[in-house]
Amino acid sequence: MDIKNVVILGSGPAGLTAGIYAARSDLKPILVSGSTPGGQLTITSLVENYPGFENGILGPELMLKMQKQAENTGVIFEDGTVVKVDFSNRPFTIFTEDKQFKTRTVIISTGASVKWLGLDGETRLMGKGVSGCATCDGPFFKDKDIVVVGGGDSAMEESLFLTKFVKKIYLVHRRDEFRASKIMQDRVLKDPKIEILFNSELQDIYGENIVEGVKVLNNKTNSINDIKVQGVFIAIGHTPNTEIFREFIDTDNNGYIKVHEFTKTNVPGVFAAGDVSDPKYKQAISSAGLGCIAAMDAMHFIEGLNPKV
Ligand SMILES: Cc1cc2nc3c(=O)[nH]c(=O)nc-3n(C[C@H](O)[C@H](O)[C@H](O)COP(=O)(O)OP(=O)(O)OC[C@H]3O[C@@H](n4cnc5c(N)ncnc54)[C@H](O)[C@@H]3O)c2cc1C
């Protein structure tokens, strides 16, 4: 089996950017696309904060352009998903459902998945009022009434950020107190735009083609409250896609890959980029930037290999 220079796992902004840089460095990268070619942006509508598009661009269109650019630079795409890795021996081995690759370096850019509640309305009205990212979509909700679901720090942070735009926020949390840090809670509790609904669970998000309202169950009284809103932000966390790496790669308590110097993992030659190693910023542009760094780090690592195994 020939030994590849670099195998990139994932085809979101991080993986595709890593691919473009690695291909232009003549590393002949293999990129395994995963079950969601294009990554998370393929489930959203307008992206207004990715530089280069003066009127914004639809998420799927942006990812198609990135994919075409990667193809044009020489990235070799492999369909399928990585099901197993072996980082205990060099060269490393990557296993997809039906193939194996031996490689000198690996870039993990498998992203993170937003945790959803699992309501029908979530999928049906995704990008039509339902969002998983306040930084990305907040400005679309100027002077609107919205619901935010969650009780941790990220729900507090997203709510406070959203107060810049919206008229009113109903913050829905299923318990009678928040998990968030005291300082974040205090800021939320004091904010006049935020009404907190404790002991409350989102039961339904309704609307024909756009969010028109939600049904909220009070789990103490069993009563259902119908609230007219134009937006719903789900802020109950993310799950980084790192399960298959954890035998070899250090992760934090929430499963995010730990990195030093931006992209280096605890295994020399294995790099991580994008949401998979970023519990904080989680943006397409920051993921793309880290993808670029990971590819350059992989190139320097290969240059330093002696002998070139
Ligand atoms: C609804 C929504 C709207 C958003 N809007 C914006 C926005 O407007 N602006 C913005 O900057 N950001 C936005 N974001 C955030 C942005 O999408 C992410 O920050 C970005 O996509 C992260 O890029 P990534 O490459 O790290 O990972 P992802 O985009 O998550 O891509 C991960 C890739 O890894 C693949 N993969 C996973 N597991 C495996 C495996 N085992 N083997 C092989 N491949 C695998 C997946 O198929 C996918 O291709 C939004 C997110 C969501 C959910």
In short:
By secondary structure, the protein is an alpha/beta fold. The protein is built from 7 helices and 19 strands.
Molecular structure report:
The strands form 5 sheets. Strands 1, 2, 5, 6, 7, 8 and 19 form a 7-stranded mixed sheet that branches. Strands 10-17-11-12-13 form a 5-stranded parallel sheet. 24% of the residues lie in helices and 27% in strands. Helix 1 (13-24) runs parallel beside helix 2, helix 1 (13-24) runs parallel beside helix 7 and helix 5 (153-162) runs parallel beside helix 6 (182-190). The relative contact order is 0.18. The protein is α/β, with parallel strands linked by helices. It folds into 2 domains: 3-113 and 238-303, FAD/NAD(P)-binding domain (3-Layer(bba) Sandwich); 116-234, FAD/NAD(P)-binding domain. Residues 9-15, 32-37, 39-41, 43-44, 47, 49-50, 81-82, 109-112, 114, 131-133, 136, 241, 274-276, 282-285, 287 line the site of flavin-adenine dinucleotide (FAD). Flavin-adenine dinucleotide binds next to helix 1, strand 9 and helix 7.
Helices and strands in order, then pairings?
Layout: E1 3-9, H1 13-24, E2 30-32, E3 46-47, E4 57-58, H2 59-73, E5 76-78, E6 82-86, E7 92-96, E8 100-108, E9 112-114, H3 120-124, E10 130-131, H4 134-137, E11 145-149, H5 153-162, E12 168-172, H6 182-190, E13 194-197, E14 200-206, E15 213-218, E16 224-227, E17 231-234, E18 238-240, E19 270-272, H7 284-303
Parallel strand pairs: 1-2, 1-8, 2-5, 8-19, 10-17, 11-12, 11-17, 12-13
Antiparallel strand pairs: 3-4, 6-7, 7-8, 9-18, 14-15, 15-16
Bound molecules: flavin-adenine dinucleotide.
The site of flavin-adenine dinucleotide (FAD) has 41 residues, from helix 1, strand 9 and helix 7.
